[in-house]
Amino acid sequence: MESSLRPVAIVVEVIILMGVIYSLFLGVKLSALDFGLEEKYQRFIDWVFMIMGCLALVFFVAHLITFYPRLFS
Amino acid sequence: MKIAVCIKQVPDTEAEIKWDTPKGTLKRDGMNPVINAFDEFALEEALLTREKCDGDIVAITMGSEKANDVLRSALALTVNEVHRCTDDAFAGSDTYATASVLAAALKKIGNVDVVFCGKQSTDGNTGVVGAEVAAILGWSPLTYVSKVRQIDAANKKIVVERAIEGGIEVTEAKLPAVVSVIKGINEPRLPNLMGIKKAAKVQIPQWNADDLGVDKGKVGAAGSSTRVVEIAVAPPRGAGEILKGELEDVANIVTDRLIDMKVIK
Amino acid sequence: MNSLTRFWTDQEVYIMKVFLPIIIGFLVLFMGLLVIFALSIWWRHYRLWHLGKEENRSDQGATRLKTLLAVTFGHIRFWKELYPGTMHFLIFWGAILIFLGKIVRLFSYPVGLTNPPQDIFKYASFVSEVGGLLVIIGGCMAIYRRYIVRPSRLETKPTNTLIYSWGAVLLMTGYFVKGYRIAIIGSGVVPDWLSWAPVSYFISRFFLILPTEPLNELLVWHRVLIHALPAFLFFAYVFITRTPLQHFFLSPINVYFHNLKSKGVLLPIPNFEEAETFGVKEISELTWKQLLDLEACTNCGRCQDVCPAHLSQKPLSPRRMTQNLKDHLRREGPKLLATPQDQRQPEAIMEKTVNEDELWACTACMACEEACPVYVEQIIRNIDLRRYLVLVETKYSSEVRLTLKNLEKNNNPWGASRGTRAEWAKDLGVKSFAEVENPEFLFWVGCCGSFDARNQKVATSMVKILQASGIRFGILGNEEGCCGDPARRIGNEYLFQTTAEANIGIMKGYGVKKILTLCPHCFHILKNEYPQLGGDFQVFHHTQFLMELIASGRLKLTKPINKVITYHDSCYLGRANQIFEAPRKILNSIPGLKLVEMERHRQRSFCCGAGGGRMWMEEHIGTRINQMRTDQAIATEAELIGTACPYCLTMLFDGIKEKGKAETMAAYDLSELVDQSM
Predict the structure, then answer these.
(1) Does residue B233 lie in a domain region?
(2) Is the pLDDT of residue A1 over 60?
(3) For C392, which residue in chain B has the nearest alpha carbon?
(4) What number of other Cβ atoms are within 10 A of residue A65's Cβ?
(5) Tens digit of pLDDT for each residue in C530-542?
(6) To probe the interface with C, which of A12, A23, A59 has the most C CB atoms within 10 Å?
(7) Shortest Cα–Cα distance, A42 to chain C (Å)
């Protein structure tokens, strides 16, 4: 019981965190466009955030696996 | 390039026509005066020519005070200069007398390369003034023009298409020329509002017989060499007959009738 | 107080070192954010609106406020469509409830409402819980609609998706955070969390598997990182960038300043004599309210769904035009503001932002204005653009040119000789107004009734009815000129003014007080627009008049017409002047006549295609609008179409022929039916 729930909890956490990351990154990108960043830089920004997002994902998973507390049953 | 346009104010043919049969003239008061429809095409052709070749347009008319309206319409269309030829002596002029007045005006303007006018006026419908002006001035007469192909002020050359029965005649002539245009040569534009408003405020210059150096004895009703002797209104057309039935039968009846009337053989 | 203390929820927390600084930090930052919001409204919105011309929309504050409250809180403009209306209502009220509950709880600790939690705190929790659920339900409805159903009128951009994803994250984490708290508290402090926060309670059961230490940490840190911080940034995003969610403040402002006059009433050009230019060429020639309209448009597409031009494949979409103009404003506005006024070189609107086909396709039917939940006004703006094309550039099709010429020369758009205007009446014993002793009405026949063969029959029927009822009336005959509607809708304001002033002069000269019109366009313009030029008359449309006659018993309808009829609501009778009942009452008074309604009737009626001067232009693109409307009539299986407008009659009459239904269907004006039944 104990360890079988831990991955579930970690997955849920990761989903929430990636949701936050996605929203924040897209928000930054759209704000930049709204404030005058030119259309031609869109592809570049997409790639940068994509990479950063992947890095964040890796970080979150690793961090959570290591530090997520031991759960009760 | 200097482009001239001759315009005439005529009564509105849409309105009811009333004749002064003894005098052989139209009863013009009470009739809505408008610019001669063919002259609108002439004006438009002048504007198009100015757009292509750069230059100035002068519009002239022979008429009473009311004729200022047609000159204002021309001004509203951004014509550069206008003149009204007016004198008591001009009243009742026939076509040649009118043409001589217009010719004098054109001479006074000076350096005119081309004159545009409508092929006829919708009141008199004589259709000769344009050619007469050319004859008086010794300029090339180009009538029934359906298209101006080329106009070259520097080389004094003009090439036009003339609508003749059964086809088109391409004519090259020397400038200066008097070009009388037919309906459909172009689509006359309407003036924009600013043009109308500005034109409304302009003082229209007028020239009388002395200004033009015209012999008063040779113009007006007295000086004209032609005179209208009789005016008759054509009898109203009969009601006509409506044929009903199958298409085949009606066609047969119509052909029979036409043969009877000797319209077809 | 630097040590660990027990929070009211029984958690151990560093209140002074950790908890309070975080709260204060957020409040300060939020204040700062509000200031930035105010600045942003000014810099990125207000300044742009005031590039436009002056317009007074501050009258009748009480009425405006009432409408604002009704639309904002009651959503009265949304209920025309049940699904989107419900969906938006849920999201809106859900959000309000969440915030209400949150604000109460935010300030509850210092005022001692939480230790132990008082009832008001628990109620506030419940309110937020319910609010969250409402938003979730509404949000799911919205996501389903936008991404799965994909109605054609919705345009989905990345910013729309962002709002949904961010909102979903905030909702989820909001419940989670509450769940943490409940998990920590246990049943000690509040025994009945299940009743006060059911969703959070449910979630909290999952957190019981976590030990206390981590739970404490979760509550403080997670709360900040996955909920408070993203929430704060969400507000920042909405306040500062020009995302569609900005409609939360732009739309209410637009609703407050909406047009209180009847729809479809055009305005004269101010300062006509001194004006150097006419109509609208570039963006700053619109009024500030028209510029606000552009920003208040939420891109919902209701206008597009009802626009007859759009539905018949013309290039016009009202939504698209508004959005394009908005983009133009946002792009060009700052450039204009940055240059001194005499050095400005504004970009023209036509061709780059709006193309001519779009503009001329509009039939001025006002369906877009009727459908818009936030009262965006499009008709006046479209005609303003036309005015520039017509009066300054003289740029229009040859059909328009011919119509304007006909109006100028002959005072009617048909080009018929003005001397024949009264020919239709010559054998009917109709007198001219001047000859009638003590006339009750001037019968304003209109150009269609005078010159068009089909509509002359309507005028004739009307005359018979008037004579049978003993009404003393006269016509102006050849002195009647076009009311000016085609000229004004085409955009030739100058021609309209000269025509209208001439008509007013003639009518005043004869001492006309009451006018009876045959045509809704004449009716609308004589009643609502002639006063702008000094012509104040009491104007009636023939359906109002006929209804009065029938209701008062002066006219008895005895002969039955045993047919099924459907009534076509004309745009300028219905939407513009709210006359829906009179024609129906007339039809119901004719014995034997059975009325069925088309699906699009009353305010939602579908234009016949002739308005906006389009009667005088051919349709070169797409399906013919009149055929579409005829199809809608055919679908009701009616044998007759009843109309109250000469344009509509012509359009539907032609439509029936074009659809090959002339054997089974016929179109009649209501006065013809009354005449038949008399």
Answers:
(1) no
(2) no
(3) B192
(4) 12
(5) 999 999 999 999 9
(6) A23
(7) 12
The reply to whether B29 touches chain C by the CB within 8 Å rule is no
Under 8 Å between Cβ of C646 and C571? no
Q: How far apart are CA C57 and CA C48, in angstroms?
A: 17
Same fold flag, C413-540 and C564-677: yes
Sort out which chain A residues have CB atoms less than 8 A from C165's CB and list them. Answer: 19, 22-23, 26
Q: Which residue of B has its CA nearest to C401?
A: B190
Interface confidence: ipTM more than 0.90 = yes
Stretches where chain C sits below pLDDT 70 are 1-13, 15, 110, 112-117, 186-191
Q: What CATH number has the domain bearing residue B68?
A: 3.40.50.620
Do B and A make contact via 3 or more CB pairs under 8 A? The reply is no
Interhelix angle for C247-256 vs C288-296, to 10°?
140
Q: Can you give the residue ranges of every domain in chain C?
A: 54-256, 283-395, 413-540, 564-677
Write down the CATH number for the domain with range C564-677: 3.40.50
Q: Are C139 and C91 in contact (CB under 8 A)?
A: yes
Question: In terms of CA atoms, which chain B residue is nearest residue C406?
Answer: B14
Q: Give the integer Cα–Cα distance in Å for B240 and A66.
A: 105
Report the pLDDT averaged over residues A45-72: 88
B68 within a domain of the structure (yes/no): yes
Where residue B27 falls among pLDDT bands split at 50, 70, 90?
A: low
Residue B27: domain span = 2-223
Count of the separate structural domains present in chain A: 1
Within-domain flag for A16: yes
Q: Are C316 and C361 in contact (CB under 8 A)?
A: yes
- The residues near B32 (Cβ < 8 Å, ≥ 6 apart) are B11, B12, B14, B15, C409
Q: Does B235 reside within a domain?
A: no
C662 and C640 Cβ atoms separated by less than 8 Å: no
CA dist B130 and B150 (Å) reads 20
pLDDT computed for residue B248 by the predictor = 86
- Of B134, B126, B122, B121, nearest to B179 (Cα)? B134
Asked if residue A73 belongs to a domain, the reply is no
What share of chain A has pLDDT > 70, as a percent? Answer: 92
- C163 Cα to chain A: minimum distance (Å): 8
- What total of structural domains would you count in chain B? 1
